[in-house]
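Researcher: For the record, we're logging two predictions in this thread. I'll number them. Prediction 1 follows.
Model: Prediction 1, sequence and structure:
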Amino acid sequence: MSRTFSIALAATLLVALGGSAARAEDEPNKVDAAKAAEFNTKLFAGPLGDKKAYACFIRRYDAEHLARHPQQKVSAMKLLVTAEKPSAENSYPYSFRLGFKYRHRKGDFDSSGFCAHLQDKDTGYEVRMNCGVDCDGGGIEIGLSKNADATLVRLERVRIWQNNKPDEEDGDALQAGADDKIFRLDRTNLKECESLITEREELVAMRHK
């Protein structure tokens, strides 16, 4: 991730967890509220309300694509982004769950964490979601395609687990490579992301969206 990504996430976590105040130079850039709201509307395909919102994106790479990108490690990826109404008890209203398959490794792998808006001057103040995994687990950035029908997932390193077991200490990591730095995932029905949900109540809630 970019240096701005890391600083923004670290400073936000310090405040949320009640740690010592971050230094002025470590404070994240203030995000324009109107642009953040516009980003949310595009990401979740509608304005946010009082109920939890979900957005699902997916990509399965065919043989032709993989032949053109021989160094790509990932053969399929799905992303679930959620948004809840901010409150005093809920400092992180946004979260992500990422699932994927390796090209030459069996099993299903996943990651998850919390997100905040990022507006980086290096990208012309484009608004993105800045998402991180606990305990220095890296993270991802979530951007949007021009017509908002797809996300652009950027990563350098993100901690992963196999078969939805984030409590295990032996988590691995998906490292960016020559063909694994940016993934374009297409918007799809929420049903495609049901496998990323581990709690029955949340699964029921998402099915009623």
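Researcher: Logged. Prediction 2.
Model: Prediction 2, sequence and structure:
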Amino acid sequence: MQLNHAQRELTVKIVYYGPGLSGKTTNLQMIHQRTQPDVRGRLLTVETHDDRTLFFDLLPVFFSTANGFKVKVKLFTVPGQVIHNATRRIVLQGADAVAFIADSRRNAAAENNSYWKNLMENMRENALDTAQVPVVIQFNKRDLPDTKTDAEIEETRKKGKEPVIGAIAIRGVGVLETLHAVLQSAYRTLDARAGLSKNIGLTEKEFLSQVFVNVDTTGTELEKQFPPKKPTGAA
């Protein structure tokens, strides 16, 4: 978190982490598509020379609070390829929360576990306390053959403290729910640490509402809580 009282700005950093091709970039692309253009930045993708290996993606979402603070939420991905561990470590620096994107297929279990251990190692390298930087787990690709059953996903949920969400990111299923969970976790941790509600008057309700009121929640679990804006001129 970066909090600048003089300029009245707050920046929150969220990192999407996980194996290559697990759906990290797809998550950001779907968020970008569903977010109003006037509150989102450009989806920036930095690639290697072969144009295939992603270094990272960056999607900024921003709004102003009732107290006049400008809030920017920066969403990053990390490269999944094994050779880019140093880049993953750099991108993870200063993260306020992490969305771990796992592949639901059974044959991906070993790779998921390997990257989970890699996340824990890189958090330690960056002096990020796992008790202070919340992690949300998304099990993506729920539409593919040989995926873990809902019961197996539920068992994973029971074993740890992290929220666990099923997703089919390419269809937008579970994407906004994951974003909501990771932003809610980030806010609660930051509020406990820096007193966001007390010191700058930013409540959890305002923080989440200001993001999701500008996101098309149609067809998601968030639709009732954050109804989509009606088109201009609609009755």
